[in-house]
Amino acid sequence: MICLILVVLSVSVTNTQKTPHFLNPENKLFIIMLDGFRWQEVFNGADSSLLHNSTYTLDTSINKALYWHASKTERRKKLMPFLWSVVAGKGQIFGNREYNNKVNVSNPYALSYPGYSELLTGSVDFSITGNDRKKNRNKNVLEVLNNTKSYSGKIAVFTSWDMFPYILNEERNGLMVNSGLQSAEGRELSSSEHMLNILQSEVIDEPGETRYDEITYIACKEYVTRHKPSVVFLSFSGTDDAGHDKRYDQYLQEAADADRMISELWRMVQSMPEYAGKTTFLITTDHGRGSKSSNWNKHGFFVSGSSQTWFALIGPTIVPNGEMKAKNQVYQKELHSLIMDILSR
Fold first, then answer.
1. 247: buried, middle or exposed (CB in 10 Å: 19+, 13-18, 0-12)?
2. What are 92-105's pLDDT values in tens digits?
3. What's domain 2-9+28-343's superfamily in CATH?
């Protein structure tokens, strides 16, 4: 229940990586990340200073029609209807700093690798200072779960960013990770998986560090349909890519697309007996961004606002309290214990 969640979140967590003996194998969990997506847009919708600025929004009239409303409660619904209808109605959303309900990363770097590592390991490794391609020496919650009887072989990771084999140290633990432009593997691939493999290998002309979130989503959905994993880690990169490109219009579109895909995934799992009534979604981000219109596209140690994040929960054991308005402080590393708590009920 929510009282247990709040107790967990108020306690300092150490990275002992002890595995509880009371994991419930019936519980399912989807951890869904929107890379570098600010709390400001989550709770207030489109920022007028950026939406009406042709430097960042190429077609202001179309984007105003899509995302603008004088009321911030209506703006955020236009941007993320699933989050503010289903999740707000049946779950909880943390991080609206206008109510002193704060969520922050603990690491000082406010970059992606440190943020993902903090969340997944439950601690801050000060040697992880950036996004260098080095294998994470710290055990993460997914590999801990994969070494239990309850969840062994039932973990799946799908990410748009190709750094996750390093963040999760896939080579050490053998987790099922599909990252970047990595092809789906296996002897009996579905027609959709075959199509995605062809698309990634033959159609995409200029491969980079990330792939389209829609490809990541389809690959994840196909795997869930066929293999029915118990714990899924799904990470989208579109919001962060658009932010670095200084494209606020695309940043909003990527957020709206992510909300749509999460909505479709929620409806799908609720229609499957293996997941219906047993599944929790934890939706969050790895870091914030600059809090001003002049630096919204940046994040990092020297960019104010970069440590500020948010998260949302929906599932059978989550009390439907909606937007959390009580004064509170949660740190990214504490979500590690929350993950274990969700799977232990």
1. middle
2. 999 999 999 999 99
3. Alkaline Phosphatase, subunit A (3.40.720.10)
